[in-house]
Amino acid sequence: MLYTRSWIDQHLEELTPWQQTAFTQFSALMCDEEHPYPCVPGKQGFQEDTLRFGFAEDPRKDAASEKLVSLLKQYGCISRGTGKYASLVVFFNTGEMTGYDHSVESYQTIFWNLLNRVHRSDDMSWPDDIATDPHDHTWEFCFDGEPYFAFCATPSHSVRKSRYFPYFLLAFQPRWVFDEINSSTAFGQKLKKVIRKRLVEYDEIEPHPSLKWYGQEDNYEWKQYYLSDDDSSMNKCPFSHMHNKIKS
Questions:
Q1: Residue 247 has pLDDT above 60, yes or no
Q2: How far is it, in rounded angstroms, from Cα 50 to Cα 82?
Q3: Strand pairing class (141-143; 146-153)
Q4: In angstroms, what CA-CA distances link 134 with 55, 107, 152?
Q5: Is-contact 95 18, C-beta < 8 A?
Q6: Starting at the edge strand that comes first in sequence, how are the strands of the sheet with 141-143 ordered?
Q7: The whole model's pTM is what?
Q8: 27 closest CA partner among 151, 150, 157, 165
Q9: What distance in Å separates the CA atoms of residue 33 and residue 66, rounded to the nearest whole number?
């Protein structure tokens, strides 16, 4: 169920029409040099064929969360062998969502509901070195024992163009990818400046105030997973890990 860029390039016609369209548009996004996408590691990973791709149906349905569970389990086993700029990119068939309120806020609800359903299917213990409370600055979403930074793009984002994609899209970056890309390394500090500059040029607005370094005491990773089109953010994380743990 996981695909490489090179495999899809050679077997594109074997995918369904919507899958072909989603990947082709993603490829165009990553290869656009006139308006380069701000995420340098993502572009690099696409060019070096270190990304892995998956497809799922309507993100509101249980079949989508079940598919995502399978993809994450498979990806966790192979991610470290794919390259230093690793990510799992999953496209969802939002073409099935006819008659739905396609607002940024509605997609935000879909995103957190999906992440919660995936978490409830996780049969592995939460990693000891990752906080279980999303309102702790060291928290990160985890699945099958692996911490991930989760990124969401939707068809409804218009102001923050870097968060727009014609299909509902999730990307999961393993936390180990950031071992050399953080505030304590010269490379990380330099890369952050490059990404911020590209982000301002791409979105034509200032970066969202929630975009900070992992581990900063005033940083909350969950606020970065799904950005609003303005500068607002939710006051409380919708992730139910702590609630479920206390309840059980």
A1: no
A2: 5
A3: antiparallel
A4: 27, 20, 17
A5: yes
A6: 51-56, 87-92, 168-174, 146-153, 141-143
A7: 0.93
A8: 165
A9: 36
Write the pLDDT tens digit of every residue in 6-28. Answer: 999 999 999 999 999 999 999 99
Here the tokens at position 50 are 């270190």
* Amino acid identity at 177: V
Q: 168 in helix, strand or coil?
A: strand
Look-up: residue for tokens 């064929």? 49
- Residue 29: CB partners within 8 Å, gap ≥ 6? 37, 165
Let me know: does 22 contact 166? Beta carbons within 8 Å: yes
E-assigned strands of the chain?
51-56, 87-92, 141-143, 146-153, 168-174
Q: CA 66 to CA 44: how far, in whole Å?
A: 29
Phi-psi region of 215 (alpha: psi -120 to 50; beta: other; left: phi over 0): left
Q: In this predicted model, what pLDDT tens digit does every residue of 174-186 receive, in sequence order?
A: 999 988 766 667 7
